[in-house]
Design a protein that fits this description.
Layout lengths: L1 E5 L4 H12 L3 E6 L13 E4 L7 H12 L3 E4 L6 H6 L1 H22 L3 E7 L22 H20 L2 E7 L1 E3 L14 H10 L5 E3 L11 E2 L1 E3 H14 L6 E7 L5 E2 H12 L6 E3 L8 E2 L4 H7 L7 H18 L1
Parallel strand pairs: 1-2, 1-4, 2-3, 4-5, 5-6, 6-11, 7-10, 8-13, 9-14
Antiparallel strand pairs: 9-12
Helix pairs in contact: 1-7, 2-4, 4-5, 6-8, 8-10
Length: 325
Amino acid sequence: MRILVTGGAGYIGAHVVRLLRSRGDHVVIVDDLETGNAGRVPDVRIERLDLSEPSSIAILAALFAEERIDAVLHFAARKQVLESVLRPAWYFQQNVAGLANLLLAMEEASVRRLVFSSSASVYGSVDGDAITEEAETRPLNPYGETKLVGEQLVRDAARAFGLSAISLRYFNVAGTGWPELADHAVLNLVPMVFERIDNGLPPLIFGDDYPTADGTCVRDYVHVLDLAEAHLAAVERTDAGEPGHRVFNVGTGEGTSVRAMVQAILTVSGSELEAEVAPRRPGDSGIVVASPAKIARELDWRASRGLDEIVRSAWDAHVSRSAVA
């Protein structure tokens, strides 16, 4: 298959690119390289492009034709919750306009297979430890809103020009498959804790008064390699001859509190620091844990890596990078 990956130089995208290439797919990357790193994906063509710019439509359409692209995996997006609260209009410009431009180019070039990176943030404050795809969607922050609008846009494009699409609602992604592909951007919990440990500072827990067992947020942590494998299963299931849009959770079905996750990191690192509680962050919800039953049933995908492997792989990669630096 000939696949274009937007955001393919990023943490998740690079894992997917490596798996695609290992099975013999031809891969082309579109990335603005603001948070991505071309060093993660050597020997892969990268078109540096800001998808939110209207000029990207013609460039993408020409690239689709030149590379004879069969399918698109769309990762490119901004993803910081707090930043989205502070800059909502910019988030919609980046995430929604970028997707709209991509879909316009796909329509022009008759590319009709898409896997869209969505997020569990579309569920917002839905409570429970087994959130299904049928749960009410009521995002708590502009980031989640952009992902929900993105799903709706993909659904409408499927109706309009015969797109065969799957949206994957990620839960909390962590760990690494290879040290050189690790997540070093301080945007997610694990690298945020690493940074605090490196500086001799206690890790921060944002809020301990949630309605959970230990008062801290509960999340479903999925290994990035499991997530990458879900994308391969999803793109295989899309079919240019069968238009439509389907949504799947990507998670383990098991919840881990932020306090327990931070403690697991401290244990693996050998640190004697103790976590400190800070005020809640705007837009955070209490419990967000997936029901992965639908993706198991329809795509035959199941997470196979647990919390220990997530934390150990991330820490070993962090130590390796620090030693080189």
